[in-house]
Specification:
The protein has about 250 residues and is α/β, with parallel strands linked by helices. It is about 30% helix and about 25% strand.
Length: about 250
């Protein structure tokens, strides 16, 4: 494992402060080097959130979001999947390597990278307080698939703008029907129909959703400070995360 550590200023609702971020690397199932940013200022006994980005993005999608999750008492890791490009001025290192090796980089091809991130977090002892999977757009769909297909792999899921972005109209819904952990789903105002049947398929009552009436954005970027209506998203996200600690 390779690491490098930097300090940067992150602004969020509670104010600005210096946040320690460590960039780490680990191998995917086919040996491709995956890059991730580790935000872990707390003991390893607190809940750990793995953050996966949306299409054409990078781990930079979470440069502002992850420090706020730290402030809420969670450790986190933002991952570059091989299906992506850049976000927030941060290049997707995993995608760049995959491109250079002429590897496939479709949405579903990112699944091994996501599973490798989970394995890395567990091997490093970061999930002692529970593991939360968080996805954005296509990766929101894939975290739901992982949770349904791999019982016991995580303790909760947050999915921002999931949908049936893959071959078949019920590819994600079939997996969602087997989810046995708390789930939170949200999206931009006009995207509810993209995930309503997936959400309905999730059994039990340990699920919550938020669909804004007017303001909002696709994926996790709805939580960024420059996104109109981000406060409403955060209110529901924080309530869900707080419920996990009870």
């Amino acid at each position: 494992m390779k690491t490098r550590c930097i300090l940067f200023a992150a602004a969020f609702a509670a104010g600005a402060s210096a946040i320690a971020m460590e960039t780490v690397n680990f191998a995917s199932t086919d040996g491709l080097l995956v890059t991730a940013d580790l935000y872990a200022p707390h003991p390893k006994t607190v809940p750990f959130i793995i953050l996966f980005h949306q299409a054409d993005y990078s781990r930079g999608e979470y440069r502002e979001i992850a420090p706020r999750l730290n402030a809420l008492g969670f450790n986190a890791m933002a991952v570059d999947q091989r299906s992506g490009n850049a976000a927030g001025g941060v290049r997707n290192e995993t995608a760049a390597l995959a491109r250079g090796k002429s590897l496939k980089r479709s949405y579903i091809d990112a699944l091994p990278d996501m599973l490798a991130a989970i394995a890395f977090a567990k091997a490093q002892g970061y999930v002692q307080g529970g593991l939360v999977l968080w996805g954005s757009s296509y990766s929101a769909s894939l975290v739901l698939k992982i949770a349904g297909d791999e019982p016991g792999i995580c303790d909760a899921v947050l999915a921002f703008s999931p949908g049936e972005y893959f071959s078949g109209t019920s590819f994600i819904r079939r997996s969602a029907a087997n989810i046995a952990v708390p789930v939170f789903v949200s999206s931009a105002p006009g995207e509810g129909s993209d995930w309503s049947t997936i959400f309905a398929a999730i059994p039990g009552s340990a699920k919550a959703s938020f669909l804004p009436e007017a303001l909002g954005r696709h994926g996790s970027s709805a939580l960024m400070s420059q996104a109109s209506g981000n406060g409403e998203y955060w209110k529901h996200v924080e309530a869900f995360l707080a419920s996990l600690k009870k």
